């Protein structure tokens, strides 16, 4: 799981012309859920988000208090694009959890956060909707957070990419018998948009080029 955490003076989510959620000072958290995420990732993220010391104390000392210490609000927004893997200049979202699985997973994480804090201080956007997220970053302070199972090691990512390429090369090619090597290579290139398999249409920043 990946998260972009921003300290804000205010933030809100609008769907169409309707504002569905808003907070004052606190944290705005963009969450990207991967196909590999489990309850351990949820527990880790909830603990870190609520314990992150990005606020000042009463004496003005920076980096001393968490959102819980200051009794502030948290606005969470599901954003599958955080699981983007670039193929050249084109984003690919095959690592994002499909929407039919991601929605209950995301809702369960919100409930876990509400149990760990004060329920009415945990707000969220609208899963699956095309949202406008308005953020007034305070500082600015922006922190990227990855759960331990989210691989950020370039070597590991390279291995995963090679494994994906090998998987594509081993797909059945009977329909290409008799084709030239160049034609066979062209036939193996998927015509469909790789992002279409993410199942997360309509989420924030989900508008894609045709």
List keywords for this structure.
D-tyrosyl-trna(Tyr) Deacylase, Chain: A; 210 residues; alpha/beta; disordered C terminus
Written overview of the protein:
- The chain has 210 residues and is an alpha/beta fold.
- It has one domain: 3-Layer(bba) Sandwich (D-tyrosyl-trna(Tyr) Deacylase, Chain: A).
- The chain has 4 helices and 8 strands.
- It has helices at 39-51, 99-116, 154-169, 181-188, and strands at residues 2-15, 18-23, 26-32, 73-78, 85-87, 90-92, 122-124, 131-146.
- The strands form 2 sheets. Strands 1, 2, 3, 4, 7 and 8 form a 6-stranded mixed beta sheet that branches.
- A hairpin with a 2-residue loop joins β5 and β6 (90-92).
- α1 (39-51) packs across α2 (99-116).
- It is globular, with a radius of gyration of 20 Å.
- The two termini are 28 Å apart.
- The model is unreliable at 174-210 (pLDDT under 50).
Q: What Rg do the Cα atoms give?
A: 20 Å
Number of helices: 4
Reported by name, the CATH topology is D-tyrosyl-trna(Tyr) Deacylase, Chain: A
Overall number of domains:
1
Strand content: 25-35%
What is the total tally of β strands? 8
Q: Which CATH first-tier class would you pick?
A: Alpha Beta
**Main beta-sheet strand count, sense and barrel state:** 6 strands, mixed
- CATH architecture assignment name: 3-Layer(bba) Sandwich
Helix content: 25-40%
Q: Overall mean pLDDT score?
A: 82
* Overall morphology: globular
Q: Kindly, what is the distance between the CA atoms of the first and last residues, rounded to a whole number of angstroms?
A: 28 Å
